[in-house]
Amino acid sequence: PENAIMASRGLVLRATSLLLCLLMTPGLAWRGLALVGRAARPRTSRLAASARRTWAIAEDGRWVSSAAATARGANDVGWSGLSREARASSDASSVTDGDGARLAAAARETAAAAASPAAEAARARPVGDFTPGFHDQEEVGVHEVSDAAEARRVAALLCARDELIHACDTEVADLDLGRSPLGQGRVLCITVYSGPDLDVGSGPGKALFVDTTEPGVLEAFKPWLERESALKVWHNYGFDRHVLYNHGVDVVGFGGDTMHMARLWDASRLAGYSLAALTEELVGRAKVSMKEIFGEPKLRKDGTPGKIIELPPLDSLQASPLTRPDWVQYAVYDAKGTWLLYRELEARLSRMEWLRTRSLFDFYTEYWRPFGELLTDMERAGVMVDVRSKLPLAQTRAQADRDAAELTFRKWAARYTEAAWYMNVGSGTQVQTLLFGGATRRNSAEVLPLRRTFKLERAAFEELHVARLRATGHAHGAEAGAAAREAAARAAAATAAAAKM
DNA sequence: CCATGCCTATCGCTTGCTAA
DNA sequence: TTAGCAAGCGATAGGCATGG
Questions:
Q1: For position A147, what pLDDT does the model report?
Q2: What's the half-sphere exposure (Cβ side, CA atoms, 13 Å) at A362?
C-alpha cells in the first residue's frame, strides 16, 4: 500500500517471548505449573549478592565492602580517587600484552600499597571472603584480531571448522535500549568462543576478540558470519543479528539461542533469562556487570564523588588503553559463557523426554531453532501499519472503548467508597488499597493499610467531578462546572486545614 | 540571626517490563 | 497471567554558602 509506512518494529521484538510462550507444548505447560512451588527458594545467591556490593578503600589501604566501610566511617576515602590512581599506574606500566585483567589488578594493588605499607599484608588476605568484583572471574585466554589482514586469516580458519559450534557475542555503542536495535547501534567488537580445540595460531582454547572499529575487519568476517554451514550460537540472537545487519552483514548459520533454550528448559524461571543469571546458575560461573567494572561515581559540583555511578561511553572503554584490557576480558567472558551455557542446556534438554523416544533438544532443533531464525526475519521486516487512514481511527476507537470501561469501573468502585470515583485507575497502589486494604499478606504478617491518601491535580479533580455529576444526573453544563469549582474550593480549604494541624 | 539560593539525597508514586 | 522489581520523576528535606 502506497501510504503505509513502517512502524512498531519494537512491538514485534517484544512479541518474541510471547510467541515463544504460545509455542509451549502441553508437557511444558505442566512442567511450568509444577515449578511454581519453587518460588520459595532464595532469589539471590550469595555470589550474586557479593557481586552487587560496592567497594571502598579503608585508611589502611585494604579493600572493604561499602557496608563495612560505612560502619568504620571510612567511606570518605573515595574509591574513585584510587581508581584513577590505579589507572595512572596501569598506564605507566605500558599496557601492551593481552593480559589486561591481571595487569589492572596489579596496578590497583600498587596503588593500594602506595596508600599504606600495611596494605602489603592485607593484600594476601582481603577483608571479607573475596577480592573485589571483576577479578574474581576466571580469566579467558584471548586472541585479538585488530586489523583486516589478521581478520581475513582468522575468518578463513573459522570457515574450515564447520564441525564446531561457535558461540558469538557483540558489544554495541550508540544504542538506545528502549528502541529496537534495527537501524541503530554500532558494533564495536565481535567475540567468539569455539571450544577448547580451536587454535588460530596462539594456542588452543582461546577466545577471539574481533575489533570491528578497525577498518576492513568486519568486512573480512562477513563471509564467515554469512556462511550457512558455520553454526553460530548466541544469547538473544535477534539483538546481535539486527545490529550486524545495520552494517550490511546478514548473519545466517543459526546454531541456537541460549535464551530460547533456557526458556524451553524451564518456562517459569523467577530469576529470568539473562546470560548472567543462567550461567551463574547452570554452569556456576558468576558474572560482574559492566557498571561494576567500569562505572565511576558521578562527581558533584565541588569535585567530591557522589552516589550515582555512571558508565562511560562504551566506545571509549574499548579505545582507551587504560580500559581496553578489562574491556576485552569482559567481552570475551560473555562469548565463553554462552558456549558453556549452550553445552549445558543441550545436555539438560537431551535428558528430557519428548514423544517417548526423543528429547526436548530434538524438539528445539526441529521447531524452535528454525522458528528463532524466522522470528528475526519477521522482526527485520517489521509490520506494515497504515498510519494515514487506519491508525487514527483505531486510536479513536480504542480511546473511546477505554473511556467507557473506565467510567463503568468508577461507577462500580464509587458504590463502595465515594472517593474511589476520583482515583487514578492506572495506579497499582490505589487499586491495591481499594481492593485489598486491610488484608494480610500471604507471606508475612503485614497488613495493607485500610485507608490511604493520594494527591490529585486540581484540573483532574474538576474534570472527574464534572463527569461524576453528569453520570449521576445531578447537574448539566454550566451548572456542573460551577459545582465542580465549589467542590474544588471545599477540598482546597480542607487540605489547608489539614496542613495546619 | 535569618532568608535565600543552590545542590544532593531521598522518598513516594507511576510506569514498564520480565533479554540485551 | 502475575508479582515483583527498578527506573524515572516530582516533591521534599537537609546541608552548605552567602548576604543582609
A1: 97
A2: 9
**What is the distance in angstroms measured between the alpha-carbon CA of A97 and the sugar C1' of B16?**
44
Q: Which residue has the higher pLDDT, A411 or A89?
A: A411
Q: Going by C-beta distance under 8 Å and a sequence separation of 6 or more, which residues neighbour residue A448?
A: A432, A433, A436, A437, A438, A439, A440, A441
Averaged pLDDT, A35-47: 22
A32: its cell numbers: 511450568
Taking the CA of residue A315 and the C1' sugar atom of nucleotide B7, their distance in angstroms comes to: 31
Domain ranges, ordered by start, for chain A: 5-41+139-379, 55-136, 390-500
Residues A324 and A266: their CA atoms lie apart, in Å, by: 37
SS3 content of chain A, % helix, strand, coil (to 5): 55, 10, 35
The grid cell for A458 is 486540581
State, as a whole number of angstroms, the distance between the CA of A128 and the C1' of B19.
32
A281 — pLDDT class (breaks 50, 70, 90): confident
List protein-proximal bases of chain B (any atom < 7 A from a CB). Answer: 6-10, 13-20
State which amino acid sits at residue A182.
Answer: L
| Right CATH for A5-41+139-379 from 3.30.930.10, 3.30.200.20, 3.30.420.10, 3.30.70.260 | 3.30.420.10
* Residue A307 CA distance to nucleotide B10 C1' (Å): 12
The mean pLDDT of A71-98, rounded to a whole number, is 26
Q: In percent, how much of chain A has pLDDT > 70?
A: 55
Strand C nucleotides, any atom under 7 Å to a protein CB: 1, 4-5
Q: How many Å apart are CA A82 and CA A58, to the nearest integer?
A: 11
Query: Which nucleotide has the least CA–C1' distance to A428?
Result: B14
Which residue has the least CA–C1' distance to nucleotide B9? A307
For residues A174 and A246, the answer to whether their CB atoms sit within 8 Å is: no
Q: Tell me, in Å, how far CA of A400 is from C1' of C19?
A: 58
pTM exceeding 0.85 = no
| Residue A424: nearest nucleotide (C-alpha to C1') | B14
If one compares A303 and A31, the residue with the highest pLDDT of the two is: A303
Q: What is the pLDDT of residue A188?
A: 94
Task: Kindly determine whether the C-beta of residue A458 is less than 7 Å away from any atom of nucleic acid strand C.
Answer: no
Q: What is the pLDDT of residue A52?
A: 25
Distance CA A181, CA A240 (A): 8
Distance between CA atoms of residues A207 and A300, nearest Å: 40
Q: What is the pLDDT of residue A263?
A: 87
